[in-house]
């Protein structure tokens, strides 16, 4: 019903003034993408996940990063950061659209309805990522343990952390791919604003 109302309504015409156009010309999506990409890259899951020498604090940090719950917690925190940042971006772009012609106002209304209707489903689908990463984490760790045991002979196995670096890179790539998916609706709104500005 909400979607039908948004599509069938007859929003009042309005003019998209120069101030709004200048704001739309600034690449809102690029700025938000850059900020969120930096947040991912700077997260402690990726900058402090290797042993850093002797000392109780460093040992605790190293032990923490050898267990997946640490990465699950960091992934969920970054998901929340992305959801909030992209949500604010969509709200700003919809506000710009409401100053446009009736078709633009209708687009803003439809986007708001679709966000409400699909957000729960999107959240459920994206919440599967940590579970899949957990399985990947265990596969890499077990393969490293097996390789170390086979090469150890009579000496205690020394497990390399190369597998952990590979996992961290994979996790970072998954987060960046998720960011791309989350930004797609906002990119569509921004494209509509730019198209209107050119006409």
TrEMBL record:
InterPro entries, per the entry: DUF3348
The name this protein goes by in its record: DUF3348 domain-containing protein
Organism: Lysobacter capsici AZ78
